[in-house]
Amino acid sequence: MSVITKVLATGGILGAVGSGGYVATYLLSNNFTDKSIKNKEDDNSLGKSLRDKGHTLLDFDTSKTESDKATWNPILVAYSKSNKKLNGKTINVAGDAPTPENINDLKKECAKATASSDYNNDTLLITEQFCMRPISIKELAENNRATPLDADVTNENDSDKWDIKVDKYLETTEEKRITNVTLETKSETNQKANRDKLRAECKKFEIIKTHETDFHTKYEKYLAWCVV
Questions:
Q1: Which keywords does this Swiss-Prot/TrEMBL entry list (predicted)?
Q2: Bridge partners of residue 209, in order along the sequence
Q3: Distance between CA atoms of 197 and 147, rounded to whole angstroms?
Q4: What pLDDT digit, counting tens, does each position of 12-23 carry?
């Protein structure tokens, strides 16, 4: 694992061009079969790094697929619609209704990926998105000791902190801003409007789950503009 990956594993902004590493691991037995996944940890594994980041691994036991399909189904649908392939694996889901075989295919790839200590950032990002217990952007930020600002536009909580965010937002470059969120030049008359516009977008971000589209990009923006 590269030095930069180890550094990022301690917690940081995840994005389309960079990421942190994280969580627990499942090692496969020497003769891997559907039921041979064992819960063991390798200190250098991708799974261990993801656990350290605040994630929880899903259950990769293929004998439990019927009982945990409610958890895996939305993840499989998201995976099949994305252009991402864990270990090169393509999974086609018909009619947004994953089969047990679909689920087991992803479970096996997740088990392999989380057990490995030889991984790149692409594998890390895909594994985080589709092999972890789904949690919201807000929850992941809190797991990493960030404090979300109150994003409720119906009150004025954290207004002073939001004003600081607005000032920084106006000063930053376009690529670092939230897509389609443009604030007005600072003045006394539009201060609250700018604050509420940023709050509203952060409110949308905080409920996005890890397996949803553009999770990493949105998590990066959330850390930049919605927390202290």
A1: Membrane, Transmembrane, Transmembrane helix
A2: 136
A3: 19
A4: 433 333 333 333
